[in-house]
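TEACHING EXERCISE
Course module: macromolecular assemblies
Task: Read the component lines below, then compare them to the predicted structure of the full complex.
Student: A.B.
Group: 4
Components provided:
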Amino acid sequence: MATTTNYSWTTPDDTALVKDGASAIRALGTAIDTSMNTALGTKKAGMVLLNTTSFSAVSSVSLPASTFTTTYNRYKIDFRALTSIAGTDIDGRLRASGTDASATDYYHQLARASGAAFYAERTNLNRWYIAGSVGDTTGETASMFEIINPAQSVKTTAVAVHTGQPGTTGSILSYTMAYLHNLTTSYDSMSFIPSSGTITGTVSVYGYNK
Amino acid sequence: MATTNKIKIQDGEEVIELLGADKEAFLADQKARADENALLEAEYKAKQDSRESAIKKLAEVAGLTKEELASIL
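Instructor-supplied answer key:
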């Protein structure tokens, strides 16, 4: 009897008799039901991978349209970038119907640690300032965003942790950020835009199931 | 090479080349962001340096190492 690769569910052989089809379907359905119940019980998967976008040598990368919907309130964004130009900053803008929101509605509260030195700042800009010196030819930056209610008609907020200067030995920085976008507009995507040069990397978006 | 004049942006899975007014607008925005970010970084560094200097002076007065005082503050 043939079995599936991962869970070894029994499936009919090519030579099995058609008259045994109903039994075979019932056995397969029961096996799947048992496996799903073992994995999740009555629960749902807590986090859903919505999309992963790879980009190479681009001046801006936007998440696919309709990444943010009212299906989820909270999203985790795993943004990873390499850039060929050390010192490049990454900016972020919310996006609706294919257009970045570029008015001065973005606020951030920044806590920046460099060695024993610590600095805090609250700033109002026309984008979210994500991290200074995000990477170089050898270092990969990691930015973990938790973005809240981007598609709901309320103000969008976010918290994030970013690495800065990851490829510069002995100079790595940490940024802990709180973000606010001061409009109640619904946004369906977000863009990541270096302040110079181009970026290469991946960005994945996960939705938290309610 | 002509390709050096192109600006590529990625919208989801689609890569778009910016030309003409769109390209100029992107470059103007990019320059403004870069200048502003450079000022922010310079400000962060200046304030960090100022704080470091103050900690060093305080540490001398208090008879502590800079690290000991920084851990208290």
